[in-house]
User: Which sequence fits this backbone?
């Protein structure tokens, strides 16, 4: 349990709960993709091909990828160039890390706005086989960016006001 102000602990608990939800959704997407792909193989070999299984597999892969990105971000598992931060001494290292988190937060916010605009432009597009509104497929982009933004904000707040975890500890 981390020490620090109550709002930091509550926000960290919220982010942990959000991470657990994203993990369950990512696993569900992967299981669904395995089921759809298995059905596609069985039906192509023994029956007639199901045209929708390829589309479902592709869409679930997109969702699993974006949801998995939130998990990797929370756990500090994305590729990072840390040699600059590692070369900087003590307090300055925290300032550089804080600046990097601020830049990441701005990046997530800008990309979130871009994806929302993209979804609005594509709002009438339907998928080929299922006739599913593509906004439901694309919706994972702003969701995952918002979640990564919250995780980034949590790291920044922990760095500024609490006991900041080391990279990779969440």
Assistant:
């Amino acid at each position: 349990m981390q020490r620090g102000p109550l709002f930091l602990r509550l926000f960290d608990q919220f982010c942990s709960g959000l991470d657990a939800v994203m993990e369950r959704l990512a696993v569900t997407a992967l299981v669904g993709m395995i089921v759809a792909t298995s059905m596609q193989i069985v039906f192509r070999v023994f029956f007639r091909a199901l045209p929708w299984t390829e589309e479902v597999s592709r869409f679930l892969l997109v969702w699993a990828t974006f949801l998995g990105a939130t998990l990797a971000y929370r756990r500090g598992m994305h590729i990072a160039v840390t040699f600059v931060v590692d070369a900087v001494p003590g307090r300055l290292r925290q300032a550089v890390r804080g600046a990097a988190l601020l830049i990441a937060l701005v990046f997530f916010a800008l990309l979130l706005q871009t994806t929302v605009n993209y979804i609005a432009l594509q709002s009438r597009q339907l998928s080929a086989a299922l006739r599913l509104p593509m906004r439901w497929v694309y919706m994972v982009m702003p969701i995952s960016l918002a979640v990564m933004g919250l995780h980034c904000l949590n790291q920044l707040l922990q760095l500024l006001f609490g006991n900041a975890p080391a990279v990779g500890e969440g």
Q: What stands out?
A: The chain is about 75% helix and 0% strand. Helices lie at 6-46, 51-74, 83-87, 90-121, 134-138, 140-161. Residues 166-170 have pLDDT under 50 and may be disordered. The chain has one domain: 6-161.
